[in-house]
Amino acid sequence: MRIDFNGRLIDEPEIRVGFIGCGSHSFQNIYPTFQFAPVNLVATCDLDLAKAQAYARKFGATGAYSNHREMMEKEQLDAVFIVTGYDGAGRPFYPKLALEALEAGCHVWTEKPPASSCAEIETMQAASLAAGRNVQCGLKKMFFPANEKARELITAPEFGKASMAILQYPQSVPTMDEFKAYADGEAKGSVISFLDHLCHPASLMVFLFGMPESLWYDRAASGGGFAHFRYADGLLVTLAFTHGQSSEGGMERTTIVSDGWQHVVIDNNIRVSLHRAANPPAGQGYGTTPSYFYGKPEQTTATWEPEFSLGQLYNKGLFLLGYYNEVNEFARAILEKRAPAKGTLEQAWQVTRIFEAFFEGPRKDISLISV
Predict the structure, then answer these.
(1) pTM of the prediction?
(2) CB 69 within 8 A of CB 43
(3) Among 182, 198, 308, 331, which one has the highest count of C-beta atoms within 10 angstroms of its own C-beta?
(4) How far apart are CA 15 and CA 270, in angstroms?
(5) Would you place residue 130 in the very low, low, confident or very high pLDDT band (cuts 50, 70, 90)?
(6) What's the pLDDT score for residue 370?
(7) For residue 159, which of 342, 292, 302, 320 has the smallest C-alpha distance?
(8) How far apart are CA 205 and CA 27, in angstroms?
């Protein structure tokens, strides 16, 4: 039995999960989603046992541990959620912890970044296949309702073919010296930040268009920059790293242009607009149209955005920011005995490959297909 969106008891199975990590992000954004998804939190784990116990009390778990191996051995879990950090060299803990959870027979959900190298992802892929268990990564941009709507619009036949796109994200690009120091084992903060945040626009690009063939990028003296991606079908995508911009008034914007006089705009992950070209009246055109107000509603711009005056699921951050969709997809995939549809290890490999490519340096044509 579980509680549905309307607060009613429904006869639906849940997955039994343990949670490794009791930090601020998991507290604010992951644990709270369990009340909406078919998830039964059984146990929590943190190196600080007092925190694990406090989180267990707060979110309804019956067990609390300071050793994740002990938790997995004792609790008969279906799955493990992992939200941790970085080791002393600035590498994510996720690959090591995921492998241990798979070995214990658990499905695995990890936060991003999934790894610091494609080799680690490939090891997880092999272990997942051998164990017959899913591994899903928290690539939340793939689960944003706004981005899902945009993908629906650009894949509709009437949109035509996407010909170019511009993704804006406020992130700095490390210098080559910083990349080299990180490659040599130094926990370089600028590269850790880049690894952590590149996941967002890169995973959105992969979700919307798939994996690009090549990359060319350049870095401004201020730390911002541009990355240009080319696809096999001719699609061009530019990722603008708008480091230095104001954090007020919207941090992100995505524009997707078709070859048929349409474009889609995603403003700050909240508002999605489909812009279409309405033809002017017969005999009128540029310079001869006395009124701009022509075109039927279905020929002009359509906009989707949630309202915020009512207490509804659709305007809660847990839903707008994709957290519920991530957790729900993970749980449903386990219950339905299938692979997750998004946030897959293949997509995690693609995002990590894009990260690795930046180490090759600016102003170069870098292949993303061959490594």
Answers:
(1) 0.96
(2) no
(3) 331
(4) 31
(5) very high
(6) 62
(7) 302
(8) 28
In the chain, DSSP assigns E strands to 2-3, 9-10, 15-20, 39-45, 63-65, 79-82, 107-111, 135-138, 162-169, 214-219, 225-230, 236-241, 253-258, 262-267, 271-276, 302-304, 366-367
In this structure, the strands spanning 214-219 and 366-367 are: antiparallel
The secondary structure of 271-316 as a DSSP string is: EEEEEE-PPPPTT--TTT-S-S--S-GGGS-EEE---SSS--GGGS
* pLDDT for res 293: 85
State the first-to-last Cα distance of the chain, in angstroms, to the nearest integer.
48
Instruction: Please report which confidence band the pLDDT of residue 347 belongs to, taking 50, 70 and 90 as the band edges.
Output: very high
pLDDT digits (tens, 9 = 90+) for 175-212: 999 999 999 999 999 999 999 999 999 999 999 999 99
Residue type, 239: L
